[in-house]
Amino acid sequence: MREMNQIAVDMKPSGIRKFFDIVSEMPDAISLGVGEPDFDTPWHIADEGVYSLEKGRTFYTSNSGLMELRKELTAWYKRKYDVNYDGKTECLITVGGSEGIDLAIRALLNPGDEVIIPEPCYVSYVPCVHLAGGTAVTIPLKNENQFRLTREELEAAITPRTKVLILSFPNNPTGAIMTREDLHPIAELCLKHDLYVISDEIYSELTYGEEPHCSIASLPGMQERTIVVNGFSKAYAMTGWRLGYALAPESVTRLMTKIHQFCIMCAPTTSQYAAVEAVRNGDEDIAEMRRSYDERRRYLMKRLEEMNMPAFEPLGAFYIFPCIKAFGMSSDEFATELLKKEKLAVVPGTAFGDCGEGFLRISYAYSIEQLREAMGRIEHFISGLSRS
């Protein structure tokens, strides 16, 4: 048999999945690893999907998605972030945010182009760059900077072959954010070096500080070089509906849509009708879920502090990234032993890049009751380490 695609063959499997394949067959196990809201999709949103089926709306939409949805999304981004997009030419509805990321990378890269990726980060960025023939250049972010990207770090990574910067804030796995003040020097460098930015803003509505999320596309000169990727999975608890979107300059959106039409055709029709209702009337649902996540976030901060597991305060997403270096174990060892001895699954920080060594990702997209039980198991595990 002839050889298969060597890039795909050489790709490492997701560092997240191995623990949860075990958990799925382990009685009484608790998992704090999956980045999925524990809320049901709000009923008024789901009901709109049901209604679309009852009305027989089961046909393909246009490749770009329902015009009604695209117009609602561009109006929403104007209201939220004061960025003007044309729903007809600058918005593409995708199968989740993940497809949007893949399409943006494939549309922008030629073989050998370099993409700067700050780590720790979502697991798909590096593989998508490699599959598109690009070169991934990672920047290890630092705990002492609360895992924010600095101007100095970015400038040191730029070469004549650099074409794209991927930003993912609020961040998975750290919960870090980038404020408007943080983004200004990053934007200046992108303008200076003529870089595109893929801004993964899937957690944009889940921020907890006084300052709301800032999209880098809203900064002067950045809209024409930024591809914003967002979706409905996290903010609206619609993971299984598989719906996302990209906002970008017309020249980029046109190329992304061309790739999309050959690979996917269109995003799920039922999900798109439900999403129209979500954008129009879902703000209070987001606010309610955000309040709950904030309560859980503050609880975890308190409990980890009591256990002497230092963690900077995450101000976005629904993850916390505590440091376990004091226990003398690698992230993988700690997570593996915790699962074996306490039946509790968390994700080793190294699943999100080498600079995640010495950290764990803990998701708080779970009930307070589950979090209390989980923290008790971690405390018991740590006390066993101190006795051994």
The whole-angstrom Rg is: 21 Å
In total, how many beta strands?
12
Give the rounded overall mean pLDDT. Answer: 95
Dominant shape: globular
How far is the N terminus from the C terminus? 53 Å
Instruction: Classify the helix fraction into a percent range.
Output: 40-55%
List the helices and strands and how they pair.
Blueprint: H1 6-10, H2 17-23, E1 30-31, H3 43-54, H4 67-81, E2 91-94, H5 96-108, E3 114-119, H6 125-131, E4 135-140, H7 151-157, E5 162-167, H8 180-192, E6 196-200, E7 226-231, E8 244-247, H9 250-263, H10 269-281, H11 283-306, E9 319-320, H12 331-342, E10 344-345, E11 347-348, E12 360-363, H13 368-387
Parallel strand pairs: 1-10, 3-4, 3-5, 5-6, 6-7
Antiparallel strand pairs: 2-8, 7-8, 9-12, 11-12
